[in-house]
């Protein structure tokens, strides 16, 4: 399955603040509660997710509906990839893997909503780049960044783009190298005990589906 968008570059938010959040995994109500607690203003603030909006939680349909909101942005996670590949593109192996890893909610979801969800998932980028009002450049990629320079993104092969969604190599090896051309890259996918910093990469997936709170960080 080919990716329609590899990298989305967001303009500087001149009105409010930008935040980044870890994997949502169908826990929208909990996310909304934490956004309220930090006085998140949907009229001017933006929330950028590291992917995996769906599965393992009770509100996967509501999580996909976030993609319709002007204040919400997300990169594609491996769970969105599996849903699109398994359902729309009829990849039987991906469909089985998806169902076995939390995708069973789709059996009770309204069929007439699927096409809209497919369209929204297809429009999810593999990476997001955003510059804060202070001039710092941030990258958001779901699982890993298999390059040494942020500019490598523009020339990634299909295999390297897949690694952006699936790989845990740098996480498992605790690689502390610095990716050039970017101040900080945020990842989810791999569960850690709180925020984990390796080089200039920050992992913010604490395992909300296991009962942890979201990690929501301001980009400033």
Q: What does this 3D model show about the protein?
A:
This protein has 220 residues and is of the alpha/beta class. Helix content is 26%, strand content 17%. It has a single domain (7-218), classed as Purple Acid Phosphatase, chain A, domain 2 (4-Layer Sandwich). It has 7 helices and 10 strands. The protein has a 6-stranded mixed β-sheet with strand order 1-5-6-7-9-8, with no helix packed on it. Pfam families: Metallophos. This is Metallophosphoesterase. InterPro entries: Ap4A_hydrolase (IPR050126), Calcineurin-like_PHP (IPR004843), Metallo-depent_PP-like (IPR029052).
Q: Short description, anyone?
A:
26% of the residues lie in helices and 17% in strands. By secondary structure, it is an alpha/beta fold.
Q: Any idea what the CATH architecture is?
A: 4-Layer Sandwich
As for the number of domains, it is 1
Radius of gyration: 16 Å
By DSSP (H or I, 4+ residues per run), the number of helices equals 7
Outline, from the CA principal axes?
globular
| CATH topology call | Purple Acid Phosphatase, chain A, domain 2
Give the beta-strand count: 10
Which residues form runs of ≥5 with pLDDT under 50? none
Cα-to-Cα separation, first versus last residue: 35 Å
N to C succession of SSEs:
EEHEHEHHHEEHHEEEE
Q: Widest sheet: strand order?
A: 1-5-6-7-9-8
Helix content: 25-40%
% residues in beta strands = 15-25%
Q: Please identify the structural class as seen in this structure.
A: alpha/beta
Q: In the CATH hierarchy, what is the class?
A: Alpha Beta
Average of per-residue pLDDT values = 97
- Kindly report the name of the CATH homologous superfamily: Metallo-dependent phosphatases
Largest sheet: 6 strands, mixed
Protein name: Metallophosphoesterase
Domain Calcineurin-like phosphoesterase: 20-191
Pfam families: Metallophos
InterPro entries: Ap4A_hydrolase (IPR050126), Calcineurin-like_PHP (IPR004843), Metallo-depent_PP-like (IPR029052)
């Amino acid at each position: 399955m080919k990716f329609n968008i590899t990298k989305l570059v967001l303009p500087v938010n001149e009105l409010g603040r930008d935040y980044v959040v870890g994997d949502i995994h169908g826990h929208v109500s909990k996310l909304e509660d934490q956004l309220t607690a930090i006085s998140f203003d949907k009229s001017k603030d933006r929330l950028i997710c590291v992917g995996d909006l769906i599965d393992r939680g009770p509100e996967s349909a509501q999580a996909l509906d976030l993609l319709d909101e002007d204040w919400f942005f997300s990169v594609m996670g491996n769970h969105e990839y599996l849903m699109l590949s398994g359902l729309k593109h009829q990849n039987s192996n991906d469909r089985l893997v998806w169902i076995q890893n939390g995708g069973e909610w789709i059996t009770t979801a309204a069929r007439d909503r699927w096409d809209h969800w497919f369209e929204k998932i297809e429009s999810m980028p593999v990476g997001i780049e955003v510059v804060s009002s202070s001039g710092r450049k941030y990258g958001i990629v779901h699982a890993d960044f298999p390059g040494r320079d942020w500019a490598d993104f523009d020339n990634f092969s299909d295999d390297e783009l897949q690694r952006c969604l699936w790989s845990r190599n740098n996480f498992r090896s605790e690689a502390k190298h610095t990716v050039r051309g970017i101040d900080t890259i945020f990842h989810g996918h791999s569960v850690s005990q709180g925020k984990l910093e390796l080089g200039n990469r920050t992992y913010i997936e604490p395992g909300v589906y296991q009962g942890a709170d979201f990690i929501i960080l301001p980009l400033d």
